[in-house]
């Protein structure tokens, strides 16, 4: 089917209708929608460098949260490229993997982060630009940017899967639009909304659920480099926000602060939370105890939802009505969801478990350069999430995952196999198995059971110090157990449930 063309991508066209409004604030500096449009246009022209269209070339960007991040993302899209956000906490090995696997041709990097990728760019022959390059570009009537169809590839986000290395998830502009419009409708976004942004912007929670939804609606985003509790709570106490979105780990930290803070500070913050119209928890399971504690403290029943990189958001508790603890709600607008059992039969009866399958315009196009993995991820046009759920009184409840090699910790989805591959490079480790151990604060903690080389010794502290030079800090094991041998089945495969039991 031929996709109708428009001179501007929908998110850019919508931004032009909010030109004079503040779009992003960061460190007391406000940037309007018009300024973002001008900056992204200038940078897009620099990216094109005389070409008519980037033609879906991948362009990575390493930029802190704020106006520069938005301008870089929009510039890549407006030039016809595929945006590849890089993690600010990634190691050089992880950065190199993303740049090479995605086949990146250029990198936009903030000036104060340039040294992190400059050697890589030089060695790999990649063009490097600064977001500030937009300032020297000629914009205006004479500037020409390509017309980009919404069915073209727009973004590649890397997600851990059941393979040892992350896979690039490709979404189109139409797919992103479907994800955003579904949440706009379900969560009642408007131009009057104001929201803090402190979640990672190389993950869908930050880049779609918060940033893209807010900018689509004409709302205002206040960006933080990370979750700076004191700074965020000061703004909460001042009534700065109408929405708040975080992972369960952050809510646990906030509960701890609220239960121990001086009365005057506590009351002001509680008033700020109570005055918000919506508070959302996601990226990991929210313990029912945390849901109850938060509601008791603030009067706010947290809205829990379910999604993943490949599908955006699929299920959500309702904006109006019961937000059921321990459940992730019902299908979002425009999203089809079904359960399928181990016999590949669609589950029709409530209370019977099955794997969550999702279908709709929100679903990603493909895994980058992995046609076999893409084909295996779908059955009859439905995406197989790997998560097991039951339906109870119309509400979906997640029971677990069909893959034991995915760990959800602190809002991140981690590949146990990727971490194992790293640990096996340690000179003291002969064998290892990495699992997620249930934890009320983190969802799951990364735990490693290891068989040591004869005569070797290894402490958790030394392993963490060694690992942090090779993988992101949130992937580093928090628990370590030395064993004489790993539990295996008759085929020699490690029995991960048995490994979990080693940690009590």
Automatic annotation (TrEMBL):
Ranges where the AMP-binding enzyme C-terminal domain occurs: 418-493
Keyword Ligase: yes
Sample GO molecular function, one term: medium-chain fatty acid-CoA ligase activity
Keywords for this protein: Ligase
Broad enzyme group: ligase
Enzyme Commission number, as recorded: 6.2.1.3
Gene3D superfamilies for the chain: 3.30.300.30, N-terminal domain of ligase-like
AMP-dependent synthetase/ligase domain span: 14-368
Family according to the record: Belongs to the ATP-dependent AMP-binding enzyme family.
Protein name, as recorded: Long-chain-fatty-acid--CoA ligase
Source species: Posidoniimonas polymericola
